Amino acid sequence: MGDRPQLGAIPSRLASSRVRARLCATTLAFCAGPALAEPAADGQEDAGAADARLEMISVVAPRPRAFAANTVSEAMVAQQSPMTSVLAVVDNLPGVSIQEGDMFGSDDWSSSIAMRGFQVSLDEAQIGTTIDGFPNGTSDYWTGSKANRFIDIANLGGVTVSQGTADIASRSLEALGGTFDYRSDAPARERGYTASITGGEHDSERYYLRVDTGALFGTETHAWVSAIRQRSRDWMQGSVGSEREHAAAKVESLLGRFLLTGMAVHDETDNASHQRIFSAAEFREDPRWDRLIEDWTDTPYVNQVYRPGWTIPRRNDFGYLKAELTGSAHFVASAGAYFHRLRGRGDWLPPYLVDVIDDAGGPESEIRAGARARGGSALGRLYFVGPDGVALAPAPGCVSSLDFPYGGGGPEYDPACHPANAVPVQSYRHSHYGKDRLGLTLDAEWSHPLGDGENRLRAGLWYEDGERDLGRDWHRIRDARSGPDHDDAPYWHQYEWRFPQTILKWHVEDAFETGPWTLSLGVRQYLVEVGREDAFGAAPDLTVESDSDPLLSAGVVFAGPIAGLELFAGYAENFKSLSDRLLEVPGRALDGLDPETAVNIDLGLRYAARRASLTATYYDIDFDNRVFFLTPQTVTGPNYLIAGGGSYFNSGGLESRGVEVSATLRATDALSLHAALTWNDTAYLGTGDPLVSAAQGIVPGGDVVGIPERLAAFSLDWISGRMTAGLSAKYTSERSVTPDGAWRADAYWLADAHLTYALASFGTGAEGLELSLVVHNLFDETYLSTIATPGAFLGAARTASLTLTASL
Question: Are 455 and 151 in contact (CB under 8 A)?
Answer without folding.
Answer: no
